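A reminder before we start the practical. When you read a complex entry, don't treat the lines as separate problems. The point of joint prediction is that each chain is placed relative to the others, so the output describes one connected object in space. Small molecules and nucleic acid strands, if listed, are placed in the same frame. In the example below there are two entries. Take a minute to note the order of the lines before looking further.
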Amino acid sequence: MSTESRVPAPPAHQTLTFRERYLPFLISFASVAVVFGLVARLVTSAEQWPRIKLQFFNLDAIIAAFPNVFRGFLTNMTVWAIALVVIACWALVLAIFRSLSGPVFAPLKVFAILYIDLLRGIPSLLLVLLFGFGVPALQIPGLPRTGLFWGGVAMILGYSAYAAEVYRSGMEAVHDGQRAAAKALGLSQWQTLLYAIVPQAVRNVLPALLNLAVALQKDVALLSVIGVRDAVREAQIFTARTFNYSSLIAAALLFLMATIPMARFTDYVARKDQERRLQRTL
Amino acid sequence: MDRVRIANLTKYYGNTLVLDAIDLAVAADEVVCLIGASGSGKSTLLRCVNKLVPFDHGTIELDGVSIDGERFKNSNELHKRVGIVFQAFNLFPHMNVLDNITLAPRKVHRVSRRESEEHARELLSLFGMAEFAESYPEQLSGGQQQRVAIIRTLATNPDVLMLDEITAALDPELIGGVLKIIKDLAAQGMTMIIVTHEMGFAREVADRVCFLEGGRILEEAPPSELFSTPEHPRTQQFLQRIIEAGRL
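Here is the predicted structure of the whole assembly.
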């Protein structure tokens, strides 16, 4: 044959017309603007709106309350960050205890099961009250007596029970073949967990753990009920003094500024994780 | 002396009898292939030999020592001497090839990282895989992954190597490369128990072939006899079906 085999040319790059390129965007933009504009108008034209604005969205009050509320918010975030690290480690230990087999490890396993069952079943608020008011009242020498410390402990105890279950699901999701391979290579139960199972489990459950982290970010506000001067407490103090609720809005805004990026980050990690799994099955 | 001696091995899964009084002896340097339909108990037999699953009756001895005795009370001692390669490779996906191979030598056999990595690289280049030392399992083809899995087991210097349908999950064009390695190992005198559906390979590599059905060894003979003049009618049927499927 003398004719060369010809590969068809790739499809020509399509040039989009102005209509094709921008029209969809303009339509969405316009419809969003119309709907939200109408809602805003409806709200602001309501008879009660000036009062609502004065009580909740009073810029002067927000500015006045801000320094204290922000200081309180830093307390929230400090408790959150410390609790997060402790929970991540302690919950993993619990999950490992729970996964152990063999009569020697039975006490650890029973301990983990009881711990998780009990602490997961008690409302966080109740735990905070119990520890925040209860333990300092015992006046045990050598132990801290601040509500801040014991409130933080309560959060750690409750959330670590949840996180342990998340870890456990991740460990159970690791394929049985991995265990068999590790065992067949002569690795002990501990070594199998440490080198083969746990690293994969942590990778599996990272998005779920980050979700818990977002939940904890808000729940640290529970410490306000035992007198910790966090953002919510400071906002309440301001409200009690001025009968204006804008300080609570200020606290809410601060929490949103922390939780929304965190939630987006969680989405991002989850998407990466999804891509990784897809790649592996292809 | 027999390297592995299995006597009266019986195992149930619940009420289902999967191994029915199996007797099998494998001498040092011998290669024994187990063939038979799926569910005939071949894989379970391998898993009993290195205690990945418990068995109900009978004895298994390694160099004359019972694997249920005091010597192998800690089954890690057994796993140091009997290696197995799985159908699904079961490489650790979060470790690169080198770490996959050196994990057991470093953590179980207490070889230094430097020494174990040297040995691993030697084995890798021996099997044409030198360039993949830093790759992760998901970056490799099935055949390459299986070769790494074989090297991972070899790196622990086992006395007995067991292969559980190691080519069953591979694309046809990748099977040859993996089987070539096993033939080389057989030629070097590795004691092996091989479960396989590749009859051509079994015929070539095995000193003895056992046909299993319903948890029993129905027939065992050198491959030249078993494949050309099978005695048992069930063996004849099985081989006939294999031939019809174009696999022999």
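Discuss with your neighbour: Chain B has a mean pLDDT of 90. What might explain this?
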